[in-house]
Design a protein that fits this description.
With about 120 residues, this protein is α/β, with parallel strands linked by helices. About 20% of the residues lie in helices and about 20% in strands. The chain has one domain: Alpha/Beta hydrolase fold, catalytic domain (Rossmann fold), CATH 3.40.50.1820. This is Acetylcholinesterase.
Amino acid sequence: MWNPNTPLSEDCLYVNVVAPRPRPTNAAVMVWIFGGFYSGTATLDVYDHRTLVSEENIILVSMQYRVASLGFLYFGTSDVPGNAGLFDQTMALQWVRDNIAAFGGNPDNVTLFGETAGIP
């Protein structure tokens, strides 16, 4: 989904972490991967995860990844191997594993979820 009121940039490799207050200890982690494949962002207002986090003892992580030609262009050459968007998702999941404990999350209790092309 694309919204003309959402600022977009090629600087798109980051994660959003939403955690309840007070900070939990050893909380379950849910990682949401937005769909769209050709366009989209995890920062749209319709994807505000604060309500879910306030109702449950979870930490919710969403990620940005390259989409469309920046993320999935393939030329069949070693310098453009394709699937950069999937590489971005893999790197975000490694970041969660390595850093989520600092937010009160349990790196051994992570659930992935998404919509449409978000969970390949």
